[in-house]
User: Fold Thiamine pyrophosphate-dependent dehydrogenase E1 component subunit alpha from Microtetraspora fusca.
Amino acid sequence: MIVTAASPQSLRPPPSDQDLRSLLLIRHFELALLRLFEQGAVSGTTHTCLGQEYIPVALAPLLLDEDFVFSNHRGHGHFLARHAEPYGLLAEIMGREGALCGGVGGSQHVYHRRFLSTGVQGESLPVATGVALKLAGSGALACAYVGDGTWGEGAVYEALNMAALWRLPLLVVVEHNGIAQSTPTSAQLAGTIGARAAAFGVRHHRITSTEVEEIRAELAPLVAAVRSEPSPLVAEFVTHRIGPHSKGDDTRSLAEIERARRSDWHARYAAADPERFARIDREQRAFVDRLVAEVAARPLAAPAAPPALAVPPALAEESSRIAAGATGRRS
Assistant:
């Protein structure tokens, strides 16, 4: 079954102070990461969710502590909307003391409580399906964030097939920003995501609004049904990425980037309630500045000790012979 909803954009007041703080925390956190990369203070890569922050913020109250959240390479906002632990996340990305995963996960591979992220496209959805199988009947669900580019992965369809057959509490959140790294979705996705979900009998809801409270009201009964029936749901957000793909590689034209910026919640909320917005914006910007200064001053995270392995005696003896240069093998 396909359910579609179109919501006209208007100059509405920003959401609650709590939601606005979350939105602006994510925005300034992501901007700080791009600055840190420019300064050479972070190794590896990172993918910011600039312009898409409202999606996890809208979903946050609909997810329970018992739920599992599976994120992707563009997952900082997913984490910060769910866990108020920006120090641990930044320490993880910078490889500093206090890192969530000892600094070995970095930007893309975070495992914290019931939150898991991966940079491997499509990898999280079959794992989320397996977790949903274990959660069925408990009232909890597995939520997996994917992008429109991920719908080129076969694992997506295997997961949807199983989730539909077994009626699993699986929520698939699609952040459809129209481009898969450097390839426009129109050049790599035939048909629609809604029609592909329908082929498996999976419900689909398309959201075009960027208003946090409106999105939350639309999705609340659908997410409740995922838990109670249970049954999978694909929630497709038509969104826009206003930042680069990763730390600086943006292949879009200036006109395309400008179109994305015109849809940004940030400017709209700033114009709708300038005084309240400016106050919370200053507060969150100052907090992120302090966060960066404190985490950058920490020592590097100590490398975690490798786990002890139980080696069978015969294999241990063979390894010793190899190390000694006497393998006993015939040439």
The domain at 2-323 is CATH 3.40.50.970 (Rossmann fold).
